[in-house]
Every structure is written in C-alpha cells, then in structure tokens.
Amino acid sequence: MLAILTKAICLILIIVLGYVLKKVGVFKKEDFPIFSHIVLDITLPGAIITNFSTFSFDFSMLFLAFLALGCCILLSAAGWFLFRRRSTEDGAFAIINCSGYNIGCFTMPYVQSFLGPTAVVAGYIFDAGNAVVANGGAYGVASSLSSGGKISFRFVGRKLLTSVPFMTYITMLLLSSLHVSIPSPVVTLAGIAGSANSFMAMLMLGVGFELSLERRYLSKIGKILLLRYSLSAVLALVFYFFLPFPLEIRQVLTAIAFGPICSAAVPYTGKLGGDVGLSGAINSCSIVISIVLITASLMVMGL
C-alpha cells in the first residue's frame, strides 16, 4: 500500500511540476503539442518495443484488442444517446468526450511498476483496440453524424495508419506472432527512450492541464463524467471477476477501466468545431478522478 501511495504522489508531483513550470513561463500552453509528439512518437513506442521484446505471443491475447474496441463503442454510444436529444452537436461532442482511454500516456506509465511484463503487454494490446476509436474513430463517427453524412471509414483508416503508437503495436504483434526477435541494439535504444515515458507523459499532462470550471460548464461536465465513470465501474467489475485471464491481466484491465479520457479528445473536439474549453475541463477533471480511482483499485486488488 505504501508503494502505491508513493508512486501516486510522485506522479501527481510530476504533473504539478509541469503545470507550475507552465504558469511561471518556462513552458507555454502552445508547447503541449511538442510534448505530445515526444511522448506519442518516441517514448511510448520505445516502451512498447521494450515490453514486447520479452513477450511470448498468445493468440488469445488478441481478444483484448477487440474487447477494448467494444468498450469504446459502448462509451461513445452511451454518450450519444444521453445528449442527442439536446442537439446533434451535443451528441457528437459526447461521442468524442465520453470514449477512449488514455492508456499509453497515463495508465500504463502509472501501473507498469506494480505489474509484470505480461500484464503490461496485455495493457498495450488493449490499447491497440482503444486506438481505433481514440485516434480517429470517434471523431470520424461524430463528424459524420453531426453533418448528417455517412461514417468515413477512409478517414479513420488514414488516421490509424499515421499513428506511430498504433503502427508500433501492429508491428510488434506481427513480429511476436512470427516469433521474430528484435535486434538487441534496437531493444537497448528503445529501452532508453521507453524508460523516460512515465516522466514525460506526466510532465506533458501537467503542461496541458487546464481546469476552467465555469458555471455554464458544470452541468455537462458532471453528466459526462458521471456517465463515464459509472460505466467504468461496471466494466472494471466485469474485467476483474469474469474474464478468463490470469489475475495480473485482470488487474491491469481493471486499472485501465478507471483511466482518464483520451487526451486526443480535446484536439478532435476542436476539429469538430465544438467547445474546446469544455472538452479540456472534462479531460482535466478525468485525470484527477482517475488518479484517485486507479490508486484505490490497486490498493483493493492488493498490489
């Protein structure tokens, strides 16, 4: 329990450090995309390669990717049905801001020190399915519905093919299934980059953290977060008690279920012409809530 609290406090302090450095002018709000590129295109792929390098492939694990896809679709659909009666724009906003998990930049950097490599890889395989929705899928659906058109699968496919983490997942899964070993110099280099993922991911969250709790936002923030975490609690119980996987895999999935909303929701809301300030507030609130819930779930699971 002490180890979990210590890790949680350290991660929170790194987020606070990033936020403070932004407030005193060392970093600017406009620097967030730079941090995002470093994490998504360098340190996260490094962590993925490092963990997959010792992974013994099991086809049953691919079920996790489809499970993630189903969970994200469920969250998006719930958001759409909750808000569509208000307006199509509100429904489209909810599709993007209810769905997707911030796994590679938040949950896995948080929990990987408590779990073995098999559980960490399981989390990354789950993230491969999550990426289909978080890295363009939800936006493609929301954009199509808000404009009254058809869902653009071409757009979704293009976004996935240009996503470095997603393509790293696919490449490592393919190599693992073919039992192809990664050259040791590549693993060493990836390990150096991957070891910085936790720090850089938390620092990035601090730089991007914005909490604008305007009165006009409170009702919608409350409804979206209540919907999100109510469903998350149900999914966490299902993951932990009913999935036919070893305990450590069920533990990492339980932690993922309580993870924050994908950070890509904010820029995709902007592309949709939605309220970016509201999306940023929801995303920032979800980070705070997830820190509490993931820490509590790790304690309950005895990690």
What does this protein look like?
By secondary structure, the chain is mainly α. Helices cover 77% and strands 0% of the residues. It starts with a helix and ends with a helix.
Annotate the secondary structure layout.
Layout: H1 2-23, H2 32-52, H3 62-83, H4 88-98, H5 103-111, H6 117-146, H7 153-161, H8 164-177, H9 184-194, H10 197-208, H11 215-242, H12 247-257, H13 265-272, H14 276-300
Helix pairs in contact: 1-10, 1-14, 2-8, 2-9, 2-10, 3-4, 3-6, 3-11, 4-6, 4-13, 5-6, 5-10, 6-7, 6-8, 6-12, 6-13, 11-12, 11-14, 12-14, 13-14
Strand content: under 5%
> Which outline best applies?
globular
Distance between the termini: 7 Å
- Sheet with the most strands, sense and barrel status: none
Low-confidence stretches: none
**Averaging pLDDT over every residue, what do you get?**
86
Output the helix-strand order: HHHHHHHHHHHHHH
Percent helix among the residues?
over 70%
- Rg, rounded, reads 18 Å
β-strand number: 0
Please count the helical segments: 14
Task: Kindly name the structural category.
Answer: mainly alpha
